Amino acid sequence: MNSSIYIRLASANMKNNWKTYIPYIFTAILTVMMYYIMDSLSQNGSVKEENVQLILNYACRIIVVFSVIFLFYTNSFLIKRRKKEIGVYNILGMGKRHIAKMLTIETIFTAIVSVAAGLALGVAFSKLMWLVLLRILHYDVGMNFEVSAAAMVRTLVLFGVIFAMTLCYNLLQIRLANPVELLRGSNQGEKEPKTKWVLTLFGILALGIGYYIALTTESPIAALEAFFLAVICVVLGTYALFIAGSIALLKMLRKNKKYYYKMKHFTAISGMIYRMKQNAVGLANICILSTMVLVMVSTTVSLYVGMEDVLKTRFPHEIAITKYKTNAEDEERIREIVVEETEKNEVEITDELEYHIAALSAVKEGTHFFLTDQGSYGTKNVCEFYMILQEDYNRMESDDMSLAPDEVIVYTTEKALYGKNTIQIDDQTYRVAKELKSMKLEPKNASRIVEGYYVIFADEAPIQAFLQSVSENSSLQEEWKQRSYAMQHKWSFDLKGKEKDCTAATEGMQGRITNEIGDSVYESREMSRGSFYSLYGSLLFIGIYLGFLFLMATVLIIYYKQISEGYDDKERYQIMQKVGMSKREVRSSIRSQILTVFFLPLVVAIIHIAVAFKVITKLLAVLNLVNVPLFLSCTIATVVVFAIFYGIVFGMTAKEYYRIVN
Fold first, then answer.
1. DSSP 147-200
2. What is the pTM of this model?
3. Each residue of 105-140: pLDDT tens digit?
């Protein structure tokens, strides 16, 4: 056959199937565009903030995985709808080799249009996305706009490979199918689906495990460990229950004769059994994508909106100075620097806390604490263990406690009290003279990854003994031992004065303490604001960006589902009318089926996010957001907006559905 014939056939086929090809090409163009934009942003060499670059790189990898899965999924729908047409070509004498050439030309055309248009739009909109990112970040991250030739090459290679893989898949489908199977096309499997009880039970078990983990997780560190396991269980359970559980439930309803043998139930149950068989995977995909959109947008928006809460949680005071391995001379020098800078800039120190502290980790077993290296968080019962002098405690809390050598005061950052009369630290036992319900040094803290215990001693001798014991068993280098296992001096305070004067004093103190005082750390809430906006602003940008990408996929899957059901229900309309149902009854029956099936993924997605709410609040606490009402408000607002958009999409795609069946 002449090659021009294949081109004309491919062109005619795409024109005749425009209802399925145009949305596919349009979404492919958007996917190419969004990958190029993200790749060019992530590889921008002028980005100075590591957090920004890291988050953009992760987002780029997510888009790669998404592009492969999404384009394969939509391509499988296309080839399914085309099988009958291809079967006709085969029956009329067109060999599979010729059909393969025709499909190859169609794929090449689709790939060229998608990649070319996607890159053109990517270049056109990349500056807009760059400006949006900078606007969200609020601070100068040293990022300049550039059109990346390397990103273009990577985009060409990636989507060239994806389209080549989809072509190979299509050719394999045609090669393995016989003409009769091709003619049956998308009508294969019209037999009643079997009840898969094993898969149904697996879905219930997987979903139950995921929900149990989400509902019983109490600490942030447990949330970090268990969250991804819970996500995997919920995803697997969702797919299993949509594929097998829905059919099992419908068949159980059909066995209930009192319920089933009613006009509205009879047709609805029968129709939905076939509907769920054909669309279960698509509905599960919609549910998972909807859940991802809701979680990403609600969490990132709440983090960004709650930035001030985050900063105040992370930095209770505007300035915090820590001197490791402290001594009286360095402490006096720090005090001189602070006084000089505050007096020079005419600002006052307010709400200050000054104390000495030793910080270790410990494994807690009942009332027994086994001291370990700092940062040893591999054990389930690990906690942070702080030791403070009585005189510092009395000064901070305006108390006059006088402890005996074998007595201590105990305070825990958890809501629950320690509630014991004694405490054992390694091989030493102390009587708890008093347990504090609150402490200025650290209020009850929901943002902690692990529990924190503060123990106040009468003098420094036992503290130094514990530090020496841990140091001897530590694997750290000697210089780090001397730094880590020694008393620290901490001084935190706020500044009162004009904003520019406070900023000048802050910058002056930072420069001098950093240069003049060795082995010290200077932290400022205001000077850390930029890095927090860089981190949480990047998360917001990626959350909205990926949310839009997943939303686009959801819309396309919904559209294809409506098209597919339209062609399938066209015959059902005719059959139901032939057995005596009026057109109004038929329309009412199918409409109820569509509404039930269509909104089922949204309902399940809302249930998913409701169950996950608790564990997500624990994860947000790790990022210093402990304002649960704010996260709840953002979540509700996100769900409402998404539900409205979901309903609009249903209304638009339903019109196409009714146009097909009528």
1. --HHHHHHHHHHHHHHHHHHHHHHHHHHHHS-HHHHHHGGGTT-SPPPP-HHHH
2. 0.79
3. 888 888 999 999 999 999 888 888 888 888 888 766
